[in-house]
Amino acid sequence: MSDVPQASSVSPKRCPACYDGSLSASERDHDLEVAGLRFVARLPTEACDRCHEHFTQGDDLEHFEIAVAVELARLGVCTPAAMRFMRKSLGYGAGELAELLCVAVDAVISWERGSAPLPVHAFVIVGQMARESLDGRGRGNIKDVLRVLADPNRLLPANPIRLMLRFRR
């Protein structure tokens, strides 16, 4: 074996639209309209040098949608359309969200259709779930708390609970 680096034999990605061009890193504005508001963000894409099509990774689009959900919550856009968008951006079905919130699935469906008042606390909880998803928090998040509360057989620990605290000095 030689210590001399070998030339890469990786060929450039081919365009899935025209099958002729090569793809290169680029950026492009994406926009989304929810509850009468327009949201715009510049996302990374791959652009074809021949047909000029742009391709965005699904993860980047999901990140954008969750950021929109967080902004809807921050702005207090407590509407049926905003609630439905926030739920869907988090990847939950109506039944899954109903289970987390300890309500009937019909309640979630009614909120999203506007046929029943949308409880502010439900909107705040879903907004916080979006924020935690965007922040990438893993443990101790609101979704875990909701799952514990929904478990009628939950047991509280018998032993003292040790907390690890950090103090600023």
Brief description of this entry?
This protein has helices spanning 58-75, 80-89, 94-101, 105-113, 120-135, 142-150; strands at residues 23-34, 37-48, 54-55.
Structural class, by secondary structure, is alpha+beta
N- to C-terminal distance: 55 Å
**Main β-sheet: number of strands, strand sense, barrel status?**
3 strands, antiparallel
Outline type: extended
- SSE run: EEEHHHHHH
Q: Percentage of helical residues?
A: 40-55%
How many strands in all? 3
The share of residues in extended strands comes to: 15-25%
- Indicate the low-confidence ranges by residue numbers: 4-10
Strand order in the sheet with the most strands: 1-2-3
Overall pLDDT? 85
Number of helices: 6
What is the radius of gyration? 22 Å
Topology at a glance:
Elements: E1 23-34, E2 37-48, E3 54-55, H1 58-75, H2 80-89, H3 94-101, H4 105-113, H5 120-135, H6 142-150
Antiparallel strand pairs: 1-2, 2-3
Helix pairs in contact: 1-2, 1-5, 2-5, 3-4
Q: What would your notes on this structure say?
A:
The protein is of the alpha+beta class. A three-stranded antiparallel beta sheet has the order 1-2-3, with helices on both faces. Helix 1 crosses helix 5 and helix 2 runs parallel beside helix 5. The longest helix has 18 residues. It is extended and about 65 Å long. It starts with 22 loop residues before the first strand and ends in a 19-residue tail after the last helix. About 4% of the residues have low confidence.
